[in-house]
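The protein record passed on for reference:
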Amino acid sequence: MAENTQNPVELFDMYVAHVGINATDPADADRIAGEFGDLMGLEARDTPVSVFSGTLVETMKQNGRGTKGHIGFHVNDMAAAEKWFSEHGMEINEESRALNADGTTRLVYFKQEIGGFAIHITSDK
């Protein structure tokens, strides 16, 4: 394997953090999260804007980003990943930027959808 790979999965230990589903309203989100809970034995966790089924599925209470929903990818180096994706044609949606308490970026979406899904990268660092 090439030492200087251009594969972001390898460069940033990238993996799917969760899939987001757009529900029509909070009751629909509860129903969808419940179905995923039943299917996979995951506990529902309610937040102000969504219901998580474990950490794998986030059901948005009121149509979230993306025509069909969103996909969140975890990266190990947010700044480097943002730079890499920008250099490869994925424009950052600055309005979506969410910050950690220390001012670093926790999450940011790209402007482009892929297959009707909004895409964001996130990091716990």
